[in-house]
Amino acid sequence: MREPLDAYIASRCRRVDAALDRFLPKARVKPVTIHKAMRYSLFAGGKRLRPVLCLAAAEACGGREENALPLACAVECIHTYSLIHDDLPCMDDDDFRRGRPTSHKVFGEGIAVLAGDALLTAAFEMAARAKPSRRYAGADMVRELAVRSGSLFLVGGQVADLEGEGRRATRAQLRWIHERKTSALLAGAIRLGAMSANATPAALRALGRFGANLGMAFQVIDDILDATKTSAELGKTAGKDAKAGKATYPSVFGMKRAEAEARRFTAGAVRALRPFGTRGARLRELADHLLNRQK
Amino acid sequence: MREPLDAYIASRCRRVDAALDRFLPKARVKPVTIHKAMRYSLFAGGKRLRPVLCLAAAEACGGREENALPLACAVECIHTYSLIHDDLPCMDDDDFRRGRPTSHKVFGEGIAVLAGDALLTAAFEMAARAKPSRRYAGADMVRELAVRSGSLFLVGGQVADLEGEGRRATRAQLRWIHERKTSALLAGAIRLGAMSANATPAALRALGRFGANLGMAFQVIDDILDATKTSAELGKTAGKDAKAGKATYPSVFGMKRAEAEARRFTAGAVRALRPFGTRGARLRELADHLLNRQK
Q1: Which has the least CB within 10 A, A79, B31, B176, B217?
Q2: Chain A residues closer than 8 Å to B145 by CB
């Protein structure tokens, strides 16, 4: 009998947390400040969406979860570093994240920059520990992670986002940003899980499509929630996109069309899973879960 | 007949510059700002000390220079990112570097943070392209780079440096900082060159010792030059360590003893090269060159 989704997510989160705790230097290791700051943001109650998807993708390809674990942790470190840097006063200037003061509010800006740098670096150390599979060398996995986190994707999306503040974006421009800022790394998490499981090239492509669509759905829903929920409900500052003059799916497409786009991307994700049959059940469940989330 | 040192350095710098230009997205690639910012700092007339040492170490181990090239470029990207972030107002707050305005003065703080992030990420993409040697997988090289750039070394040294401003440091503390802030990555550059050349474990250890000593000599001399030269002579703000209340070798050990320490570290570096005989000649020459530099 299959584990219920809630229990599945909770157990995978615990496994990821335990692995992150093992991989990172303890908070007492010198210089204490940096290790405290890295852990403060990493263990701040994140949803661990990307690592759970990474593990589920490995499972869908018939791989062992433990081989995907260093990659799952690496992606979570990248995600966390990007949040720390995005929250800086010179970027989105945000004081709260996941219901707690942001890194620079607690440790100061200098340490927040360095904590992000250290987590980004630690991500590659973790990725380089992943066991190679028959088709994919360790260096292939590192390259996958680096490309999706770099100037053409994750960082590039944040640049476009920063430069777009206060300007009108077209639908195409907004989609371009969301593909880079959110979808690329989320799809990367899923592809990395598949690579650890020695996925065939066809399976890897299908899962890449699944991840790209899911990532878009996820970000569109994030935009919608930011516009419709309170800070208390979200555990982070609500309405900040509008305040920063940022283009979002509701502001550019209208709320109704934005909701339709979220459903369309989710349908695209589910379609990409077809070749996996029942093996894709867990990933399908996770996609539904994301579409229906309230925070 | 061996190439004179100046010609050797100049030709290797050109080779490294050409490879960096090839590895990085062109300045016209979207988002244009980030690629301009990455290139602005990377092609700002740096000495390319670390990549040249990386190539020379590969040569000393009988390897092909071209196999070391992606690693040499990776180390230079890490070095450049660390300068961009160190220069930020929330860190050392420096307006000039290599005789030009620093990244955040030209592009703004947000883009400077992101340019650093993108270069750090690009470094791992480059390292992951390095051809594995018989003893060392690509992932081994990535891990070497990640550990030396992370919270226990490069970033850790910067944290201790930042926290130490305005406080009295002991000799042991100062040495601890310099070992992490400078020596670790410089030694890493040399070890990576050796790994690309399939160095024996003993040769790798010897070159690690060479690099650690050379890195310390290099940083002590940097401290001395900062205290004794003008900004025009250095091409960067002189006397800034004293102004920031930073501990330096001259301020903690006294100038005479600092000079003696620089010679002691250089001698240690040269000693570590003994097993290489004439094969170590170029590395020995580079070490002498660094000890006698005036900027």
Answers
A1: B176
A2: 124
User: Taking residues A250-262, what's their average pLDDT?
Assistant: 95
Q: Which chain B residues touch A90 with a CB distance below 8 Å?
A: 108-110, 113
Quote the CA–CA distance of B52 and A221 in Å, as a whole number: 49
Q: Which residues face B100 on adjacent strands? A: B97
Please state, in angstroms and as integers, the Cα–Cα distance from residue B230 to each residue in B16, B86, B92, B235, following that order.
29, 21, 18, 8
Does the pLDDT value for residue A46 go beyond 90? Answer: no
Share of chain B above pLDDT 90, in %: 84
Q: Which regions in chain B score pLDDT beneath 70?
A: 1, 235-236
pTM: 0.96
Residues within 8 A of B (CB atoms), A 88-117 only: 88, 90-91, 108-111, 113-114, 116-117
- What is the number of domains present in chain B? 1
Note the pLDDT of residue A242: 76
B35 contact residues in A (CB cutoff 8 A): 151
pLDDT of res. B118: 98
Residue by residue, DSSP assigns B97-155 as: ETTEE-HHHHH-HHHHHHHHHHHHHHHHHHHHHSPP-SS--HHHHHHHHHHHHSTTTHH
CB A284 within 8 A of CB A207: no
Task: Provide the residue range defining the domain that includes A150.
Answer: 5-291
Tokens 């299959």 found at: A2
- The predicted model gives A249-259 an average pLDDT of 95
Q: Which residues from B are below 8 Å from A139, CB to CB?
A: 128-130, 132, 137-139, 142
At A127, the amino acid letter reads: A
CB-CB: which of B110, B111, B128 is closest to A146?
B128
Q: Does B33 touch chain A (CB under 8 A)?
A: yes
